[in-house]
Design goal:
heterodimer; A: four-stranded antiparallel β-sheet; 13 strands; about 0% helix; about 55% strand; globular; B: mainly beta
């Protein structure tokens, strides 16, 4: 049981390049999330999805796009990378428990450097 | 928007000493979750608190949810080197539009002096 898998784990981009981070979960979770983590800033929510075909903005959505065409996958895209997007990106998924979000299961993270 | 603050940001303790981190929300929370992130690792779920005034224990860890459901604390008794890491609290982002979003606190980084 793989849980939450992120690819790639490391990537170096030049300013202006585009890329896509892939998150896959095999737990049949309804909710999926993309967070970024910067030193001293904690985890900040970029975008999230409550089900296949639906996405919503989080705290810091600018410069990112997402898609959830299949329930098990959540893609995070950077159309034109900027140095400010250098960060560690975490994908997470969870069940819905009643009206609340259940525990989040995180992937191992993707470290992105934009030069 | 909702803000979740944690104090202290850093804590250095001698092995065997106790440790406490505090979490404060600008809004009332329906529930609060706690996570631990080891250095170089990813956050791992510890516990969820739902009821006002709730207290839960996991071995040496004690979690509390405030009566007003706007604050929470994590207390570790007799710290060990395995407790090293950053502890985050997280609360639902929006009480009006559903609780799907989790807003994370800024975290408290715990280091242990052997």
């Amino acid at each position: 049981n793989a849980g939450v898998t992120q690819t790639p784990k490391f990537r170096v981009l030049k300013t202006g390049q585009s890329m896509t981070l892939l998150c896959a979960q095999d737990m049949n979770h309804e909710y999926m999330y993309w967070y970024r983590q910067d030193p001293g800033m904690g985890l900040r929510l970029i975008h999230y999805s409550v089900g296949e075909g639906t996405t919503a903005k989080g705290e810091v959505p600018d410069g990112y796009n997402v898609s959830r065409l299949k329930k098990q996958n959540f893609l995070l895209g950077l159309e034109s990378a900027a140095p400010s997007q250098t960060s560690v990106y975490f994908c997470a998924s969870s069940f819905r428990t009643g009206t609340n979000t259940g525990e989040l299961f995180f992937g191992e993270g993707s470290r992105l450097t934009v030069l | 928007g909702q803000q979740v603050m944690q104090i202290p940001q850093y804590q250095h303790v001698q092995e065997g000493e106790d440790f406490t981190t505090y979490c404060n929300s600008s809004t009332t929370l329906s529930n609060i979750q706690w996570y631990k992130q080891r250095p170089g690792g990813h956050p791992v779920f510890l516990i969820q608190l739902v009821k006002s005034g709730e207290v839960k224990k996991q071995k040496r860890l004690t979690f509390q949810f405030g009566e007003a459901k706007k604050n929470s604390s994590l207390h570790i008794t007799a710290t060990q080197t395995t407790d090293v890491g950053t502890y985050f609290c997280a609360g639902p982002g929006d009480m009006l539009f559903g609780n799907e979003k989790l807003t994370f606190g800024t975290g408290t980084r715990l280091t242990i002096i052997p």
